[in-house]
Amino acid sequence: MPSELGAFLRSRRDRLTPAQAGITPFPGPRRVPGLRKEELAVLVGLSADHYSRLEQGRQRTLTDDVVEALARALRLDDVERAHLRDLAAPTRRRDPGWEAPQRPDPGLLRLMTTLGHVPTLLLGRRGEVLAAGPLLAPVIGADLAPGDSFVRWLFLDAGARARIVNWADFAAAAVGALRYEVGRHPRDRRLLALVDELRAADPDVARWWDDRGVADRTSVAKLIDHPTAGRLEFGIEAVSVPHDLEQRLVVYTVEPDSPTERALWLRLVSTNPSLSTD
Which end of the chain, N or C, is surrounded by fewer C-beta atoms within 10 Å? Predict the structure, then answer.
């Protein structure tokens, strides 16, 4: 049975044609949409049997040199390359403190206060909410409290699909981020259970998961259909601190002097009259 490593390699091989890989196709009828195993093996510098063992799950670890050769041959981006490295080292032990409750990073909380003019959200492991800025709930139409699951809201709450205009694009990126996290923490039982729950509940999640795409949770556009403010346009940026990469501050950025910025300002003034300049 193919391992996660083997399945990922197969999915990336299937999407890459010989022309895209810069090689002349091997002769004979083709039964695969992308590269043949033998073609990829030549590109990487492995024997066909050696590469077959990787895809079939008979060899679950790779040397750094082979990882880099595969990443180059398969034209992986930076996130996919990092995911391949994670899959190539499945024997790492889980941090014994991994299951301990997370506490919001004080520096990120201060940054949230400073960014009080835009929606903000602090996420921890598995997309768990650690803190939310005051403008988030009015924008997304959901009051997410510490301990709530942002990804459960995104996929299981009908209000999320109704409020987010480009829900499919945003949600597909979220599934890619989940797969990236599973690659980093393959023994996280709660994370694996969350993925199984979402796949069973939502056919879109199951389809995107089976595509085996990976994504980072940064720089994603988000369009909101607000019931009173109309169309709101945000650029979603996620930042973390070096001493705790398992916390990410999600900031809903806006263009200066845009309708979205004006709508947020009116919301601030309505709840804090002292901000009015009239």
Answer: C
